[in-house]
């Protein structure tokens, strides 16, 4: 297994080390037999959007070039296999409610790879709740009741738990009444219902929403949460199931490799990793790509999957339209901190907790058992009281131990805020940003298409499902336009 230059690994014996092993690393890093040829399509980015697009174009007979700045596939979703256990650095959980994901799991015969993250059969079967109001442990039934109560108050803008105002999460603006909440922040929504929230409920809903947004209550849009809620059928337990319960036994990189390997087997895929793109010029008919190391590639069409927070790092000619430039300059708010910890006590497997607002990590959950019998826990922080886990490992260990006494044998994580190809985690918009810029971000510019989970249509935008959807749609457009006899194929 190759070692990625990305990610961090710490044990008491080794200290902090940069770079972690992953099956997502591609060797050889470049496979281009005829680099001077005009490709049918170039795909920038090998996350799930780019992998889906490259697979669908190459398997349909189009000569496809996949360019990726990293040494691996997966983008903001990748796993590291250490001592027989997959540690998910980014996107992790999936669900059969997410149609594009489940179709692909079915396509690759991977439905039996779904495993349950939670296990309430061990000794430490409780939820730790540490807030400004005090510290205590409660049962998971009490935890679910508290959070469901708080979240339902938060989303109940219409007296019908959001069902009336957003009846179709894949067409969020179907009821124009929802636009009344377009500029509302999470903090403003909580202020609206503050009279009806107990101290526990307020801490619960703020912690839960910050887990989702990775931002602050002031800069996180309420509308994004309402869409997640609607996509999960207006039910707290279903929302939990879709965002933090079901994961893949093989790790997400095991899933992503299926896309890449199918594309490669078509014989129509060329690729180059460790190849950041510097410039895209579509002013002369063909699209000319210039990489940071000076390589030039030509194609009839281009699918750009660069995330919103790094879109402005690429020079475009003609320039991006004004709305795209404004959105790229504003950036989305998600600066999630995600840290994996192996805890010696196997009885911690049934534990979860919240420490908010004083701690730099907000939520922790026991998520698995390693082959060595230790409890694997995953912890999340956000832009509020933000930290860089790699800068001070003692601070990181201290933030984990705020949840309770734990003997920690290993930490594994990726710093998404410092990631040059992401500058943040999954998308969460600022108040007003979605309505103002979403359609502009989706809009193509000549032969250049923009596809990414950050602006995918529908309820599961910002999820793996949204990435696959966006890649599918972009590839379909390119295939239709380049099929023999189509108008654009003759241009």
Detailed description of the structure:
- The protein is an alpha/beta fold.
- α1 (48-59) packs parallel to α8 and α9 crosses α11 (433-442).
- β19 (363-369) and β20 (375-381) form a beta hairpin.
- It has two domains: 3-77 and 251-331 and 430-482, FAD/NAD(P)-binding domain (3-Layer(bba) Sandwich), CATH 3.50.50; 115-248 and 337-415, Polyamine Oxidase, Chain A, domain 2 (Alpha-Beta Complex), CATH 3.90.660.10.
- It contains twelve helices and 22 strands.
- It has a nine-stranded mixed β-sheet with strand order 2-1-21-17-20-19-18-9-10, with helices on both faces. Strands 3, 4, 5, 12, 13, 14, 15, 16 and 22 form a nine-stranded mixed β-sheet that branches. It has a two-stranded antiparallel sheet with strand order 6-7.
Give the class-level CATH name of the largest domain.
Alpha Beta
At CATH level 3, the topology of the largest domain is Polyamine Oxidase, Chain A, domain 2
How many H/I helical runs? 12
Oligomer: single chain
Strand order of the largest sheet: 2-1-21-17-20-19-18-9-10
Under the CATH scheme, the architecture of the largest domain is: Alpha-Beta Complex
How large is the radius of gyration? 22 Å
Q: On the 0-100 scale, what is the average pLDDT?
A: 97
| Overall SS class | alpha/beta
As a percent range, the share of helical residues equals: 25-40%
What does the main sheet amount to?
9 strands, mixed
How many individual β-strands? 22
N- to C-terminal separation?
45 Å
Task: Choose one word for the global shape.
Answer: globular
Q: What is the count of distinct domains? A: 2
Measured by DSSP, the beta-strand proportion falls in 15-25%
């Amino acid at each position: 297994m190759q070692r990625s230059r990305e990610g961090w690994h710490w044990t008491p014996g080794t200290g902090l080390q940069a770079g972690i092993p992953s099956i997502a690393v591609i060797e050889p890093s470049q496979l281009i037999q005829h680099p001077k040829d005009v490709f049918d399509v170039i795909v920038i980015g090998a996350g799930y959007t780019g992998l889906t697009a490259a697979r669908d174009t190459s398997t349909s007979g189009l000569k496809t070039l996949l360019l990726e700045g990293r040494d691996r596939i997966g983008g903001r979703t990748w796993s590291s296999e250490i001592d027989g256990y997959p540690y998910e650095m980014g996107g992790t959980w999936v669900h059969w409610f997410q149609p594009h994901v489940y179709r692909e799991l079915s396509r690759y015969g991977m439905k039996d790879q779904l495993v349950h993250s939670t296990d309430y059969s061990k000794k430490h079967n409780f939820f730790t709740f540490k807030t400004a109001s005090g510290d205590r442990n409660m049962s998971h039934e009490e935890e679910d009741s508290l959070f469901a109560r708080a979240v339902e108050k938060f989303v109940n803008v219409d007296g019908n738990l959001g069902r009336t105002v957003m009846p179709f999460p894949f067409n969020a603006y179907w009821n124009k009444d929802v636009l009344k909440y377009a500029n509302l922040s999470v903090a403003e929504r909580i202020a609206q219902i503050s009279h009806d929230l107990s101290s526990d409920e307020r801490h619960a809903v703020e912690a839960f929403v910050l887990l989702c947004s990775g931002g602050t209550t002031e800069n996180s849009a309420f509308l994004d949460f309402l869409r997640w809620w609607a996509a999960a059928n207006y039910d707290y337990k279903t929302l939990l199931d879709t965002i933090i319960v079901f994961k893949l036994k093989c790790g997400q990189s095991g899933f992503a490799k299926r896309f890449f390997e199918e594309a490669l087997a078509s014989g129509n895929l060329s690729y180059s990793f460790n190849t950041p793109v510097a410039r895209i010029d579509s002013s002369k008919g063909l699209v000319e790509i210039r990489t940071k190391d000076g390589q030039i590639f030509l194609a009839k069409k281009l699918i750009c999957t660069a995330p919103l927070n790094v879109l402005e790092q690429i020079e475009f000619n003609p320039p991006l339209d004004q709305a795209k430039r404004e959105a790229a300059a504003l950036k989305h708010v998600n600066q999630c901190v995600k840290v994996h910890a192996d805890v010696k006590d196997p009885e911690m497997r049934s534990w979860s907790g919240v420490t908010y607002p004083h701690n730099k990590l907000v939520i922790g959950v026991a998520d698995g058992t390693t082959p060595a019998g230790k409890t694997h826990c995953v912890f999340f922080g956000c832009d509020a009281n933000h930290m860089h886990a790699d800068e001070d490992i003692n601070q990181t260990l201290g933030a984990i131990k705020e949840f309770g006494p734990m003997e920690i044998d290993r930490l594994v994580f990726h710093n998404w805020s410092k990631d040059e190809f992401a500058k943040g985690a999954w998308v969460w918009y600022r108040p007003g940003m979605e309505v103002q810029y979403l359609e502009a971000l989706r809009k193509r510019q000549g032969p250049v298409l923009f596809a990414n989970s950050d602006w995918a249509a529908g309820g599961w935008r910002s999820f793996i499902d949204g990435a696959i959807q966006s890649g599918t749609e972009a590839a379909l457009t390119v295939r239709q336009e380049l099929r023999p006899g189509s108008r654009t194929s003759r241009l």
